[in-house]
Amino acid sequence: MSLCLTGLTVRLNQTPPLFPALTLCVGPGEVATVMGPSGVGKSTLLDAVAGLLSPTFILSGQITLNGMDISPLPAEARRIGLMFQDAVLFPHLSVGDNLAFGLSRTVKGRRVRRDTVQEALADAGLPGMYDRDPASLSGGQRSRAALMRTLLADPAALLLDEPFSKLDAGLRDEMRGFTFTHIRKREIPTLMVTHDPEDAEATNGPIITLSEAETSR
């Protein structure tokens, strides 16, 4: 599996591009990091890859996933998982039902689906927590549960937008290791936006810096 961007640019209506044309190929299990100051277009880049751009933006270039051009596809057809700053779990569902919500439809049968979620909870260090209220989890536990919910959807690629920024220093180290280990094990090409150089260094992958000097703004 690979995620490739070829000559990708984004502009707001008829204004100049937010960043220079970007060409990048992220291989299986690799994490590529995008860094740069606020407002340079990092999160907009992720929106473009995910298919979530507002209609006011114009996308140029090509996005391919496993050799297929996904640029014209809607977000729900791209098989791209998203993880943001806040590990948001649905408060009206148990921890296990939160993970089951993200479970791929290819996993069929109530018992099989529950067993799959139980295995994922154990893998996340949350054994026996299927029926727990999400509000009872610690910050690190919520982050692990949110990541496992994303992975259970069987994404072909993953986008991380400042995924560790709301965690304290100790939890950041724990979640970096947990997240990158699962990405490598599942061979998921991943694009991460962060302001933290330690996040980037922990990936052992390529680092792309977007700067104001490189944009027309």
Q: Segments where pLDDT lies below 50 for 5+ residues?
A: 213-217
Number of domains: 1
**CATH-defined superfamily:** P-loop containing nucleotide triphosphate hydrolases
Radius of gyration: 18 Å
What is the H-and-E element order? EEEHEEEHHHEHEHE
Quickly give the CATH architecture: 3-Layer(aba) Sandwich
| Distance between the ends | 35 Å
Query: How much helical structure, as a percent, in the residues?
Result: 25-40%
* Number of helical regions: 6
The average pLDDT score comes to: 90
Tell the overall outline. Answer: globular
If you had to describe this structure to a student in words, what would you say it looks like?
The chain is α/β, with parallel strands linked by helices. It has one domain (3-214): Rossmann fold. Helix content is 32%, strand content 22%. The chain has 6 helices and 9 strands, in the order E-E-E-H-E-E-E-H-H-H-E-H-E-H-E. The chain has helices at residues 42-50, 95-102, 110-123, 139-152, 169-186, 197-203; strands spanning 3-12, 22-26, 31-35, 57-65, 68-69, 80-83, 157-161, 190-193, 207-209. Strands 6-7-8-3-9 form a 5-stranded parallel sheet, with helices on both faces. It has a 4-stranded antiparallel sheet with strand order 2-1-4-5, covered by helices on one side. A hairpin with a 2-residue loop joins strand 4 and strand 5. Helix 2 crosses helix 3. It is globular. The chain starts with a strand and ends in an 8-residue tail after the last strand. 37% of the residues are buried. This is Putative thiamine transport system ATP-binding protein. GO terms for molecular function: ATP binding; ATP hydrolysis activity. InterPro entries: AAA+_ATPase, ABC_SmlMolc_Importer, ABC_transporter-like_ATP-bd, P-loop_NTPase.
